[in-house]
Amino acid sequence: QVQLVESGGGLVQPGGSLRLSCAASGFTFSAYAMSWYRQAPGKERELVASISRGGGSTNYAVSVKGRLTISRDNAKNTVYLQMNSLKPEDTAMYYCKASTITAWGQGTQVTVSS
Question: What is the pLDDT of residues 21-69, one digit of tens each?
C-alpha cells in the first residue's frame, strides 16, 4: 500500500535551517507530482510547495518563496524540502503528498523558536 514517511523536523532558532525528507513507497513515484503541506495548530492544512514528476517545475506559496526549496530524487523515491531563514510562523506539522493519491504520512514537526 501507499506509504509516505516524513522525517527531518525538529526545533530550530529563527534564521536557522532544516532539511525535510519524505520516503515514498507503494506506487510509481516518478509518475506523480509531489507536494509538501503544513498545518499549524488551529489552522487548516496549506500547500507549501509542489514539484513536477521530473523535477523540472516547482511552485511555492508566497509566504515561503525564496526560503524553501523542494526537490526530488526519483531513483530514491524521495522528495525533500530544504528550509532556510526559518521564521516562527513556519512552525507546523509538515506532510508530503503525491498528487491524486489521498494518502498522508504521519508528518514531521518543525518548531521555530528562540
Answer: 999 999 999 999 999 999 999 999 999 999 999 999 999 999 999 999 9
Rounded to the nearest angstrom, the gap between the alpha carbon of residue 5 and the centroid of all alpha carbons in its chain is 11
Where do we find the cell 524553501? Answer: 68
Q: How far apart are CA 60 and CA 31, in angstroms?
A: 20
CA Rg, the chain, in Å? Answer: 13
- List the one residue out of 94, 92, 96 whose CA is nearest residue 113: 92
- Round to whole Å and give the CA distance between 95 and 114: 24
Coil, helix or strand for 11?
strand
Q: Nearest 5°: CA angle at 91, between 86 and 96?
A: 95
pLDDT over threshold 90, residue 100: no
Contact 70, 49 (CB under 8 A): yes
Q: Could you give the CA distance from residue 73 to residue 80 in angstroms, rounded to a whole number?
A: 8
